[in-house]
Amino acid sequence: EVQLVESGGGLVQAGGSLTLSCVHSGVTFDSWAIGWFRQVPGKEREGVSCISSSDLKTNYADPVKGRFTISSDDAKKTVHLEMKNLKPDDTAVYYCALDGPTFCDYIGDYRTNPLPIGAWGRGTRVTVSS
């Protein structure tokens, strides 16, 4: 059973930085991707970024391009999301999720076209104050 555990959320002022981490375990298939998503209460979940295990290809949603960086530490089975120049609009609960790599190509469209993703973490809250 795939398990995902997020950490690193917190309160930060606008313009500040945070790094989220997602530790994964139980993955038994060869090719997969991990994505970061976020959700504000009352709104749809949106895709933020993702990385593929096979070629480390990354993808980012437009609102975070140039500010967020996703990376993978295979030895520690951890995917990081480094977030810089944070804005109040980045306030949300951030989730990591894992499935086959297809969804990674459509991460930016997730809110309007939510492809099924099999495994989700429980989320970590990020609050950006103005």
Q: Outline of this structure?
A:
The protein is mainly beta. Helix content is about 0%, strand content about 50%.
Blueprint (SSEs and pairs):
Blueprint: E1 3-7, E2 10-13, E3 18-25, E4 33-39, E5 46-52, E6 58-60, E7 68-73, E8 78-83, E9 92-99, E10 119-120, E11 124-129
Parallel strand pairs: 2-11
Antiparallel strand pairs: 1-3, 3-8, 4-5, 4-9, 5-6, 7-8, 9-10, 9-11
Secondary structure class reads mainly beta
Count of alpha/pi helices: 0
Give the amount of beta strand, in percent: over 45%
* Count of distinct strands: 11
Give the integer mean of the pLDDT values: 96
Ranges where pLDDT stays below 50 over 5 or more residues in a row are none
* Major beta-sheet overview: 7 strands, mixed
**Separation of termini?**
40 Å
Rg from Cα: 14 Å
Can you describe this structure?
By secondary structure, the protein is mainly β. It has strands at 3-7, 10-13, 18-25, 33-39, 46-52, 58-60, 68-73, 78-83, 92-99, 119-120, 124-129. Strands 2, 4, 5, 6, 9, 10 and 11 form a 7-stranded mixed sheet that branches. A 4-stranded antiparallel sheet has the order 1-3-8-7, with no helix packed on it. β4 (33-39) and β5 form a beta hairpin. The radius of gyration is 14 Å and the shape is globular. The model has no long low-confidence stretch (mean pLDDT 96).
